[in-house]
Amino acid sequence: IPNLFFGGIQENWIQEVDFNLIKTMGATFVRIPVKASDFTQPAGNTTIGFEILDNVVEWANANSIYVIISLAIASRCQNAEPYCSSSGNADLWMDSQAQLDTVQCWRGIAERYSQEEMILGYDLLERPLAPTDTHLQSMYERIIAAIRIGDPNHIIFLQGNNLGKDFAIFQSRWVLQVDNNTAYSLQIDTDSDCPSLVDYSTSVDDAVKPVELVRDDNLPVLTLYKGQCQDYLEALYEKFQGDSIFQPTGYWTYKTISYSTKPMAIFNMKDKSSWEDVRSRLDNSQFITTSEWQNFRTGKRHFNLKPQLESTETG
Question: Kindly report the CA angle at 142 between 139 and 145, in degrees rounded to 5?
Answer without folding.
Answer: 145
